[in-house]
Design a protein that fits this description.
It comes from Blastococcus saxobsidens. The protein has 137 residues and is of the alpha+beta class. The protein has three helices and five strands, in the order E-H-H-H-E-E-E-E.
Length: 137
C-alpha cells in the first residue's frame, strides 16, 4: 500500500490472461483434474459453453490483486467469494481475460480494512460477494 488508506481507496486493476496451459498447470498444482477444465467435449456435455477455469484459480487471481496491493501476503486475514459464472477459456492463443478491481469499502477496528472486489471476464461478473479483510497498520 502506498499512501493513506481510506474508504473509497481503489486497488490497482489487475488484468490476467488465462490460457489452457494455465489450466493444465493449475490442475497439476491443485490435483483437480476434472475434465471440464481441459476437455471441450466433456465441458459441453455437462452444459458449459466450453472448457472453464477452476473456480479456485479464479479466486486466487482475486487474492493476488489484494496481496499485490498490500505488498504483504500475510496482511490478508479474511477472504471470501461466491462463484457466480464460469470463466470460459477458449482453445486459442488469446485465452480468456480476467479483470479484478477492488475498493476499500470500510475501515474496521484494529487497523483492518474491508476490500470489496469486482471480478469479471468477457464483460460478465464471475465472482460475487468477493471480499477481503486486510491489516493496514
Amino acid at each position: 500500500m502506498t499512501g493513506p488508506v481510506e474508504v473509497g481507496t481503489e486497488l490497482p486493476e489487475l488484468v490476467v490472461r488465462v490460457s489452457r496451459a494455465d489450466l493444465v498447470r493449475y490442475a497439476g498444482a491443485s490435483g483437480d483434474f476434472n475434465p471440464i477444465h481441459w476437455n471441450e467435449r466433456v465441458a459441453s456435455a455437462v452444459g458449459f459453453p466450453g472448457v472453464i477455469a477452476h473456480g479456485m484459480f479464479t479466486m486466487a487471481l482475486a487474492g493476488r490483486a489484494v496481496t499485490g496491493w498490500t505488498g504483504d501476503p500475510s496482511a490478508l486475514v479474511e477472504f471470501q467469494v461466491r462463484f457466480g459464472r464460469p470463466v470460459v477459456v477458449p482453445d486459442d492463443d488469446a485465452g480468456a481475460e480476467v479483470t479484478v478491481r477492488g475498493k476499500v469499502a470500510a475501515l474496521l477496528d484494529d487497523g483492518r480494512a474491508r476490500v470489496d472486489l469486482t471480478v469479471t471476464s468477457d464483460g460478465e461478473k464471475v465472482l460475487s460477494l468477493a471480499r477481503a479483510v486486510v491489516r493496514i497498520s
